[in-house]
Amino acid sequence: MGTTRRRSAGGAWAWTATAAVLLATLLFLPGCPPGDGGNTNGNGNTNGNGNANDNTPGDSGLTGKFVGANACRTCHGAVHATWLETLHATALETLEAIGSDVDPCLACHTVGYGEEGGFVDRHTTNSLAGVQCENCHGPGKDHIDHIGDPAFWPDVSIAAQVCGNCHTGAHHPNFDQWQESGHAGIQEDVIADLLEGGTFVNTCGVCHSGDVFVAARVNGETVPEDYFAGMTAEDLNPITCAVCHDPHAQTGNAAEPDEGRDFQLRFPDTAEPTASTAVADASNPDRFNLCGQCHHSRGRVWTSTTRGPHHSVQANMTIGEMPVPDGTAALVPAAASIHQMLSLQCTNCHMYRQDFESEVAPAISGHTFEVDYDACVACHQFPEAKVNTIQAEIQAALDGIADRLGDPAQWEYSAEGGPDETVQATLADEIKQVRFLYHYVLGDGSLGVHNPTYIRAIVAKADVILTSIGR
Prior knowledge:
single chain, Flavocytochrome C3, Chain A, domain 2, 2 strands
């Protein structure tokens, strides 16, 4: 069987893959609270025969619409084998170990609990224990009964709600916090308009559309430019869970996972590329860590005239590199940030996590991707004050550069309110270089924090160039 891409019932693109297993893959933070210890058989349920003490695993009650992962294994053995190594496969054991295998926890640690034909207990429906194929795909009996009919193939979607059905609430608020993040939407109306119109799919789309990212970067597909023609922004999946997390397997890409965990990251948590001035290197996602798959240069250099650096150069800035036209000298010497040396790199500050303590102090999943200063106190006594100081310094330097450049209509990029392309060609190289340096710092977005030494060198270089031309 090949891989078929089709639309889900909601209109968003989805992938029906050779694997009939797509599991929700957000981080497993500490789950349900311990049980009350009052269960006679350790799982809070009686078996189908009413014998509360007989917990011998069995499937006498497995007669409904749910079939269990073993039934999927017949055709999808490879995916089944990798799923067995994930924490989803042993999700019920996780509850049992802490005495929490009770309602309502069972709804997210078994298949179909509370539904007709779903998990009841170990004795009668043991094959439905754990988080399996049908948690994400829905009941599989119709598919098995009509194995060759595409109309009955399970619907596969990368929509965040697939994971959010369970990864929500005070104990594991991954979905809730992701909804507050910039990843949760097609951030800019212009990007949504471009994608709706079926253009710029392989440029803007790769990092602004989860559908395109999974198709192009994960599945290696050639994505046609009319991929989303006729669709609206509401039909598009943004940067959802399955963009960063592998739904089917442990990957070993987490730098320092908690004991027994893996996080199933699609790309390595950390990377240590050597700084380069080559455009091909600066725009090559294969050099960077998970976040750098999108947060990297789009190849613009100081000779570009239409637009400046994209607001995505965080990976380049952290390792202290800046692309220049081929065969030309670096504008600023490379200087890696000390933050690149952190054990988790971007994750250290942008994905601070904290276990559930109480309803008043719920878990923090880190999926807003906003910096939590609690993550910085190990190195900085007053991190917020330090950040404010650096950012005020760099913002003042940028304001000074803009003032010395003068009226933006005379020097800005043509697509950003500057003169047309004809006038752009007549601008002095020094002006082009300074505006590129200026926008490179703005594009990083941290105002100096990602790499203070390198960013100070950038604004200092801009000062030197401006002084050389009497500005």
